[in-house]
Amino acid sequence: MKISKKKYGELVKKASPPSPIFKNCIVAFCVGGFICVLGELLTLLYAELGAGQQQIKMLIPVTLIFFAVLLTALKIFDNIGKFAGAGTLVPITGFANAVASSAIEFKTEGWIMGVGAKIFTIAGPVIVYGTVASVVYGIIYWITTLF
Length: 147
Known about the structure:
Layout: H1 5-15, H2 21-48, H3 53-73, H4 77-84, H5 91-105, H6 111-118, H7 123-146
Helix pairs in contact: 2-3, 3-5, 5-6
């Protein structure tokens, strides 16, 4: 039995509940904001403990990456992601989750063919296209500053 595109679209629309976009945006904003506030609180904590500005700039990303990977390993980050949606995609925590979840998923296939080969399955395209985009933007910036 062949279904037309129109009929298929109607079936999909009927089976898919509408997304509460406004609520999703508010939740994503609040969770993403909380992650950023956590970074600021860590900044204050490390400054209070006597760390210098250079050390603080290193400790904040390391701490946020550690928490994201730990929560991913404990299967908590996925639940937060389901609740917060795009709010968990604050670059450093979202990237850490992408790398850690791929590594955890494929660990049963071994260190070489599992973790080593699949660790950047999700994060790899981000690295590649981010690097390409930065080169293109850099060339555009360089050309515009010549005149």
